[in-house]
Amino acid sequence: MNSNSHIKNPQYRLIATATALLFLSLTGCSQSSTETDPNDRAEDVDQAHLVAIEIIEPRALGIVHERTGTLKPRQTVRIFNQEEGRITQLPYFEGDNVDQGDTIVTLDEELLGSEFKKAIATARQMGLNLKRQEELAKRMAVSQEDLAQAQTDLSVAEAEKRVLQTRLSYTRIQAPFSGVVSERLVEPGDVVPRHTHLMTIINPKSLVTSILVSDLLLPQLQHNDPVTVRIDGLGEKPFNGRIHRIHPELDEKTRMGTVEVILDPIPDGARSGQLCRVMLQSAKRERITIPFNALQRDTRGEFVFKLDAQQQAQRLSIKSGMRIIDRIEIQQGLVSGDRIVTKGFHDLEPGMKVEPVN
Predict the structure, then answer these.
(1) pTM, full prediction
(2) Strands, E, within 14-143: which ranges?
């Protein structure tokens, strides 16, 4: 059978036609599955990195610094005796209130009282002697030396009387101001020598706290500047205070100075010895700050990602300053109007095109 007989056979022609159609169908499916829409390919190429940004804007800010201290009475006095003797009365105990002028300590005054009476009698006698000498001097019956001696004797007797009167007053000690007894160190019946510490009185209305402040912060503080004070024993409630005194000298080793803060007014429940926290606010000035998490660091130093005019993120070296809560001050590198990246740092590289989402 020759080749022409195969072509003329109807069954053979049907099989050949079906084979050709199947080949064309498979070829078309393969081409359609591998081809991509040009628009879709362009979108993949131009898709930008999503970031959050912040526009730099200087603000007048004062930095708050917290310092701890202990409440202490500014007005306190330790009571000492100026005469020796036995204590006869000591009516006040720790915690008792005393008023100015109240007798808080009494010493035995019997011996000094007798000596004072003797001095009074002696001065009276010297006064009579001087009067008699003056009468005799009028009749020229006494010398000028005897008259001068009588005058001297009277002066000495009067001086002795005043000394004993002063010593007698020392046997009764009075409160120098109104306050509260904080210490009672002796008891009635004790015999005490001179200059013994007997008790201590404080004024609870004069509570102050002393805090240590760096020499960098001291120039920004002034007398009567308002502050906020929290007392641990009284909870989280803030109280008003003010700077009462700034000590002129600094510690040579720590470069820290002492600042006294008073509570104005004294809150109920405040006591000497309580721990308190003083919040100081430095003077407000224009500062550039950024979120703390926007600051990046590597081996070359500190930097941020700044957006340029083509919406590309560029590395910008900066110098940071003091941290203020969740932000940080930028001292060099940024100016007003700069746009920096605050979120979206994953896989972000300099020169990459970005798209702000905020």
Answers:
(1) 0.62
(2) 49-55, 59-61, 64-73, 76-80, 85-89, 97-98, 103-107
